[in-house]
Amino acid sequence: MKNFIKYTFLSLLLLSAVGCNTFEPLDENLAGDDRLTSDPAMAEGLLLDAYGSMSNQVLFNDSATDDAVTNYLSGFRRMATGEWNAQNPFSSRWSQYEQVLYVNKFLSIIDEVVWKRDEETNTLFKQRMYGEAIAMRALRHFWILQEHAGMGTSGELLGIPYITEFLDFDGDFNLPRLGFEETVDRINEDFNEALTYLPMDWDGDLSNQPTQYNGTDDDRYQFVFGKNQDGRISGRIIKAFQAKLNLLAASPAFMNGSGDYYQKAANTLADLLNDNGGITGLDPTGYYDFYDFAIGTRNFPEVLWRDNVTPSYTWLEKQHYPPSLNGEGKLNPSQNLVDAFPMLDGLPFSETHPNYDANSPFENRDPRLKKYVLYNGNDLNNRIIKTGAGGGNDEIDKVQFRSTRSGYYLKKLLDPKVTISSDGSVSASEKMNVFLRYTDLYLMLAESANELGGPDNMVGGMSARTIIEAIRQRAGIGLDSGDSYLAGISTKEDMRALIRNERRLELCFEGHRLFDLRRWNMLDDIPDIMGSKYDGTNYNEFVVEPRLYQENANYAPIPQSELVKFDALEQNAGW
């Protein structure tokens, strides 16, 4: 990390932090910190850099799990097939310390910058951005912790170094990892401090302003904390990530239910979701519309935090459409995932189910299967895709690096209205990158409530059973005959399995599965990836790719390059 930081932050100090000198010459007497403190826009650029390179759902790490494979040699494919080690830390988030240091540099100069000429407005701007910076520092540490926390070689459950100061290029970067619980506490402390400065929402609502702003001029408050700030981190977003942090801490790979982390997560989630309308606030349309909204529409009830809507995401169709539609077919869902979708009446998928038809195995199934997975005979905007006999280039392994390896293509996240011409040009499509959505939070509350007291334990008027019932009904399960499978669940263990499966289905291809498997202590125990090939008469399953994770897989390695430079760092066991 030190060499990287030396390069980045020495350049930052000498070349004004955000590299604007690349496009315009520096004023003769305004280099380094002087430039930052004299130019509010330059100074705020440090804070805005903390919003860059956000963890999101279009990284497609699913090919490192049991949900998918990929048809090219990606880092996640190598990770899943035995090449993952400290020298090749394919999923590492250690580089997110870059954003931590941007934040700390911003905090070191915030008091020296004149943000607005009016003194009261200047103070409000400073307080708001201080809250944002503290929150983003906590968030970046959470993401690093989620990836790199684990059992150290000493046998102690470890967290990560927590950096709260800007370290100059010649500073001491040889920092030890904190204990796991201490790291969680430090993140929560930053989140809690940020909550005292930031409103729950960027709406300028005077009735919901943090108490320290009581007595502030109404017009000034609404100017600083109004809708123009929408998209930045807010109190509601902070609370959602605090719940994620506490659920991570409570999970089997970490505290395994000890302490009060499940209760903390449940309480926070209940407050957030009751503010969203409780069970009735669950968006009735289901999976958020990544693409299916009218141009100009910007209101998405399912989405809590997102990036800007943009036409730049048509690379998704180019990468993941099947070859017959001029795509590259990169991500291929697994038979393992397909089998996780239940029958239409809610019972787990089974070839012995009375409504199972071997000739049409995708009929009488959970409707989400048709929406999320492009299987043999499914369609994209009435364009039928055949992955078996007669499918041409869409058949399994027909065209190297383009055809499916499993018998399935991705459908979720893709705009079926998009067309790709043979010359590679792509029709228009507006999309958004989503960081948080409410269904994830409802499933987190179901998990926490069940672990605390079983299927019918109520937290804030909601239980695991009522939440899962609402999600499955929304999906179209059991609408005609009722959901007898859910009704028959009586134990915490059975409800746990169902909640985990619902997370797998609802959140598939959104970047959650890899980290869920790891916090549940399950990544080292997933099976080989299966596929299915239609020969014109029958569907025949086959092994596509092994999963070669060892016992240490639930705790990712600290990159070996960091251990070589910093002897205070302790590696996770087994790496």
TrEMBL record:
<dbReference type="InterPro" id="IPR011990">
    <property type="entry name" value="TPR-like_helical_dom_sf"/>
</dbReference>
<keyword id="KW-0472">Membrane</keyword>
<feature type="domain" description="SusD-like N-terminal">
    <location>
        <begin position="50"/>
        <end position="212"/>
    </location>
</feature>
<dbReference type="InterPro" id="IPR012944">
    <property type="entry name" value="SusD_RagB_dom"/>
</dbReference>
<dbReference type="Pfam" id="PF14322">
    <property type="entry name" value="SusD-like_3"/>
</dbReference>
<feature type="signal peptide">
    <location>
        <begin position="1"/>
        <end position="22"/>
    </location>
</feature>
<keyword id="KW-0732">Signal</keyword>
<dbReference type="InterPro" id="IPR033985">
    <property type="entry name" value="SusD-like_N"/>
</dbReference>
<protein>
    <submittedName>
        <fullName>RagB/SusD family nutrient uptake outer membrane protein</fullName>
    </submittedName>
</protein>
<comment type="similarity">
    <text>Belongs to the SusD family.</text>
</comment>
<keyword id="KW-0998">Cell outer membrane</keyword>
<feature type="domain" description="RagB/SusD">
    <location>
        <begin position="317"/>
        <end position="575"/>
    </location>
</feature>
<dbReference type="Pfam" id="PF07980">
    <property type="entry name" value="SusD_RagB"/>
</dbReference>
